[in-house]
Write a structure and sequence with these properties.
Length: 386
């Protein structure tokens, strides 16, 4: 469902505190502005650089209210209220100011007041960091990654010259490579490809995507030349994984394996098998290093695993590879880290059970006795090989 459509539902239901998690603020603001024009709602935006911006009523131009104080911007929202409409204030990157007691109290009071005069505070931020005082007052809305159709329109808008892109398998390969990128990232990748090769090619998009994943620090992308022909043995596992991936679109979860757990001593080819499977099936292999998910701040680890799994879902179809998973999850059965590993494991297990994206998980393990029992018992979606 488009962002504007979801927001319209929440605003119509009078949820006066909305938090939009988005990495593409300009696109989100464009959708919100279009929604307000369609519904005849008033709109104001605020950020620390531009201050409070209120669209003019006469000529549609922007009027600078000269306010870069967040408290003043919040208090100005009630002046935008109308008897028969709604007024929205979009606060961009406002999470940076929610460590102030004065700002938190002003937001809480305005959200309560908004129920009476239909004024809405919308926080636009790449992360969700809601203070405990406001947790029950905000609804979180995710701004999804661009759809395949949006990417197609973006490519056709950039590659306008003759021979710069051809419809058919080549365009499909570029769209597969661009899955999981934001519009801003994809636009840069397509433009770089035009500069280098004179046409949009998937190779340049994959290169840019690999760099962007490394920058996030949560996942890395592997696209090697390994194949099953270079890997001796494991014939049953090769056949099973190929059949399982072909069943990924099956509606019955019992006939749609979510992944495999490869069990064996070091040096038996488990990691090589995972990388070769991606090459054999034409899918990118995302390597998830659980150690890199651990954060020093409270809640950061849980946020990191959710973001990593969100990226994996957006990049589907793909292979998600976890190496030596028993070492990564060893803290899930103890309280040595205040339950952080247990919560991380719980988030991953819930996603593994519930996700409906075309992501095939391969985990390797040297000692199954060190795995949490809840993972060892998932025989319906886990295969074993030695």
């Amino acid at each position: 469902m488009p962002l504007a459509e979801r927001l319209s539902e929440y605003i119509s239901a009078c949820f006066t505190g909305l938090w939009i998690q988005s990495f593409e603020h300009e696109d989100a603001l464009t959708e919100i502005a279009q929604m307000c024009r369609n519904e005849n709602w008033r709109l104001a935006t605020w950020d620390i650089d531009a201050g409070l911006q209120i669209p003019g009523q006469a000529n549609g131009q922007t009027i600078d209210a000269g306010e870069n104080d967040p408290l003043a911007a919040i208090r100005a929202l009630n002046a935008l209220a109308t008897p028969d409409g709604s007024a929205l204030l979009v606060m961009v990157n406002f999470h940076r100011f929610l460590n102030s007691p004065e700002v938190v109290q002003a937001v809480a009071r305005q959200i309560a007041t908004g129920k009476g005069n239909r004024t809405f505070i919308i926080v636009l931020s790449p992360v969700v960091q809601i203070p405990p005082e406001l947790e029950k007052q905000f609804i979180v809305v995710e701004h999804e990654f661009p759809t395949r159709e949006q990417m197609r329109n973006l490519i056709l808008g950039i590659a306008t010259g003759e021979g710069e892109i051809s419809d058919g398998p080549e365009l499909d390969n570029v769209l597969d490579a661009a899955a999981g990128l934001t519009c801003y990232e994809a636009e840069g990748a397509f433009s770089l490809s035009l500069v280098r090769q004179g046409r949009v090619t998937p190779e340049t998009v994959w290169e840019l995507k690999s760099q962007m994943l490394k920058k996030s620090g949560l996942l890395s992308l592997h696209r090697g030349s390994e194949s099953f022909a270079h890997l001796g043995g494991l014939e049953a596992m090769k056949s099973f994984c190929l059949r399982a991936i072909r069943c990924q679109g099956h509606r019955d979860p019992l006939k749609r394996p979510r992944g495999v757990l490869l069990l064996g001593v070091p040096g038996t080819g488990k990691s090589a098998f995972a990388k070769a499977l991606g090459h054999e099936t034409g899918r990118p292999t995302l390597i998830l290093d659980v150690g890199s998910l651990m954060g020093s701040l409270v809640g950061q680890t849980e946020q990191n695993i959710r973001q990593a799994l969100r990226i994996a879902d957006a990049m589907a179809p793909c292979i998600l590879f976890l190496d030596e998973v028993e070492k990564a999850l060893s803290g899930a059965t103890s309280n040595g880290d205040s339950g952080v590993s247990a919560r991380l494991f719980g988030t991953f297990l819930t996603w593994l059970n519930d996700h409906d994206s075309d992501v095939f998980v391969i985990a390797t393990c040297n000692d199954i006795s060190k795995l949490p029992r809840s993972l060892r018992g998932r025989n319906a979606s886990t295969g074993y090989s030695s």
